[in-house]
Specification:
The chain has 3 helices and 24 strands. The longest helix is centred in the N-terminal third of the chain and has 14 residues.
Length: about 350
């Protein structure tokens, strides 16, 4: 099976068939309208006031296309009587829609959401309008009739009985992700990961606030892997941190389930690592990171040291000053072995 087909199935089907109910014609709709799409100017896109903090709300609704209940996260900004919602579409989670709250009713007129990119092609995505009832403190919105989104008249999202409930996410340390496979096919090297949307105590955390970062070990020298536009043709800018829900429908699958890796010196890598990053707050951001999980590609300084008898471990900054064991950043890890020798490696935490 071709690389592009693997990630198309893994990415799109995960969104339109969360419980495994696959509808191939849902994906083919986009291909059918491709020739007729005219991308609109960016000036038509709505954005909320930058000075107001985004609030995360939990979406619950019934997808009538696949006859299945869905739960995910959206972002809401309320500015007096104006209300903005980002994430109404499962296909384009960055699109904002603006409505007005009057007498406990939020009315969202039909609006342009933005350019939805799929499989290297661009599509205009439109919100077809909706009416929600709103409780007194705007912590819950409900629309029995739901809403649809569409492109060139073809419906993509179609929900009824939609409830948006304000969430109060608390900062938490995300659980350590794992790399289950690093291998090669006819199209290049790829890594498969499991990134739990859980904290270290096993509690659920919000996937929309979760991201991950890949790291490379070359003989004890560790660096952050960069996703560049030179290698990843369907991303808009270089990235070192990838949002949990991000996919380019080609190289990078949702939740890191399969990600292609590029590098001229991959054969020289000793290990590839991954860590999760959880960030709460839009303006007043607070971030915590998981432990790094290392997947060994061949014997390294890391494995040989860890398999020896270490009697004492200390950490130092790059100026040689001793720091605490929970310090973060680029550090020197110094280990005193049972035979009296010391070994040091650079670590990024």
């Amino acid at each position: 099976m071709k690389k592009i087909t693997l990630l198309l199935i893994a990415g799109l089907v995960a969104m339109i068939a969360q419980a495994g109910v696959i509808n191939q014609d849902k994906a083919s709709k986009l291909q059918n309208v491709k020739a007729n799409v005219t991308v609109k100017a960016e000036g038509d896109i709505v954005t909320p006031p930058a000075s107001i903090e985004e609030q995360i709300y939990t979406f619950q609704g019934h997808d009538t296309y696949i006859d299945q209940d869905k739960t995910f996260e959206v972002f809401v900004v309320i500015d007096n009587n104006d209300i903005y919602v980002k994430g109404f579409s499962e296909y384009y989670t960055e699109g904002w829609v603006k409505g007005t709250i009057v007498d406990g009713v939020a009315t969202f007129p039909a609006a342009y959401m933005g350019v939805f990119e799929f499989w290297g092609d661009a599509y205009d995505l439109d919100f077809d309008g909706a009416v929600f009832t709103v409780n007194d403190d705007a912590s819950e919105l409900f629309a029995a009739d739901g809403y649809t989104t569409s492109t060139e008249g073809e419906i993509l999202d179609e929900f009824i009985n939609v409830t948006l409930t304000k969430a109060l996410p608390e900062i938490a340390t995300p659980a350590t992700p794992t790399i289950t496979e690093f291998t090669e096919d006819d199209y290049g090297h790829y890594v498969k990961m499991t990134i739990p949307a859980k904290d270290v105590d096993g509690n659920d955390i919000f996937a929309a606030l979760l991201s991950y970062q890949l790291l490379i070990d070359r003989n004890g020298e560790q660096s952050v892997y960069e996703f560049t536009t030179d290698n990843y043709e369907f991303i808009e800018e270089n990235m070192t941190v990838v949002p949990y829900n991000f996919t380019d429908y080609y190289d990078i699958d949702v939740a890191g389930k399969q990600v292609y890796i590029y590098g001229d010196d991959i054969d020289e890598w000793n290990a590839i690592g991954v860590k999760s990053i959880y960030t709460v707050g839009d303006k007043s951001r607070e971030t915590r990171e998981s432990e790094i999980f290392w997947y060994q590609l061949k014997p390294t300084a890391i494995t040989s040291i860890d398999n020896n008898d270490v009697v004492e471990t200390n950490y130092y900054d790059l100026q040689g000053r001793k720091v605490t064991t929970n310090a973060t950043g680029l550090l020197i890890k110094q280990m005193r072995m049972q035979d009296g020798t010391t070994k040091s490696i650079k670590v990024l935490r």
